[in-house]
Specification:
- This protein is of the alpha/beta class.
- It has a single domain (2-298), classed as Alpha-Beta Barrel (TIM Barrel), CATH 3.20.20.140.
- It is 37% helix and 13% strand.
- The chain has an eight-stranded parallel sheet with strand order 1-2-3-4-5-6-7-8.
- Strand 6, helix 7 (199-213) and strand 7 form a beta-alpha-beta unit.
- Helix 6 runs parallel beside helix 7.
Length: 301
């Protein structure tokens, strides 16, 4: 089966700066020392080649390159990787980083857009009022802030999409953003991040996902469902995969590995085998959309 991995990372810890990888932090997934090592395109190709799935294209999502450094530096490095013979067509799309609060954001987007594989931006917006360890941004109201929204709207000028990463309790606010600014396509990361596996959290996640689905400019990447759960199985993640597809419809969903982050709890092939097993009762046409075709559409591959 041909697959497009719509969410993975590469990092060169010897030559580039990733503060969270070079200096340990308290991470919501627990001990992540296993991934605090250089992971390059050859490593991704090796991981993907171990199973029966043919990785034909991929989407690299920003990996928290040092925010104090040049925000376009990561995109420039990745474009070089994509242009290499070794990449063999991978790193087909690049999702970079930008701060929509910054007065320089338009200039940053213009520089990103000068790279042919650039497709969009991820500014991680995860925030909790109750647990500072879950905060990837200082403010929980960023999506409602007029200055932030002014920067966000600029994505449309550059034909760029937004990779949205939030916690489940932020999904309804995110739906408001999506409906208010429909000209910016949103690609929801990591299945809406339903990591608290209890009934109340599951209900909150479901309500948020249904709110997001009301916005026609939102698609979703099904990924990272086992990132914080060692020993997970296909049946463990099945309810979230099936519910997401039911809520959004098969035309708005796509699969991803989140490698190497998800190597904390799984190997590359097992992630795709789980998706394969869960969708085995679907038509070949629908499975092709989930594993390949929707990625071409949403990331303009």
């Amino acid at each position: 089966m041909k697959i497009i991995d719509t969410h993975h990372h590469l990092w060169d810890l010897d030559n580039n700066s990733y503060p969270w990888l070079q200096t340990p932090i308290d991470h919501f997934a627990g001990d992540y020392s296993k991934i605090r090592r250089t992971y390059l395109i050859g490593d991704l190709i090796a991981d993907a080649s171990e199973g029966p799935y043919e990785l034909v294209k991929s989407v690299h999502v920003q990996a928290e390159w040092d925010h104090e450094a040049d925000p376009v530096g990561e995109t420039a490095w990745l474009q070089g990787v994509a242009n290499s013979a070794e990449a063999n067509g991978l790193v087909s799309a690049i999702v970079g980083n930008a701060d929509f609060f910054s007065p320089e954001v338009e200039a940053v987007l213009e520089r990103h857009a000068a790279h042919p594989n650039f497709r969009g931006i991820r500014q991680m917006l995860n925030h909790s009022q109750d647990n500072a360890g879950l905060n990837f941004i200082d403010r929980g109201d960023a999506m409602d802030d007029p200055t932030w929204r002014e920067g966000y709207r600029l994505l449309a000028k550059f034909d760029a999409s937004f990779d949205l990463q939030v916690w489940p309790w932020q999904l309804e606010m995110s739906a408001r953003l999506a409906n208010d600014i429909p000209e910016v396509p949103i690609i929801l990361n990591h299945t809406g991040m339903p990591f608290a596996n209890n009934a109340a959290s599951r209900r909150q996640w479901g309500a948020g996902m249904r709110a997001m689905a009301t916005a026609g400019n939102v698609s979703v990447k099904i990924s990272a469902l086992g990132m914080a759960t060692p020993g997970w199985t296909a049946d463990d993640i099945r309810p979230y995969v099936e519910d997401t597809i039911d809520i959004f419809g098969v035309d708005r969903c796509m699969f991803a590995s989140n490698f190497p982050v998800d190597s904390l709890t799984s190997d590359y092939t097992s992630i795709w085998a789980a998706y394969d097993e869960i969708t085995s009762g679907m038509s070949d046409a629908d499975r092709k959309k989930l594993f390949h075709d929707n990625a071409v559409r949403y990331y303009r591959l």
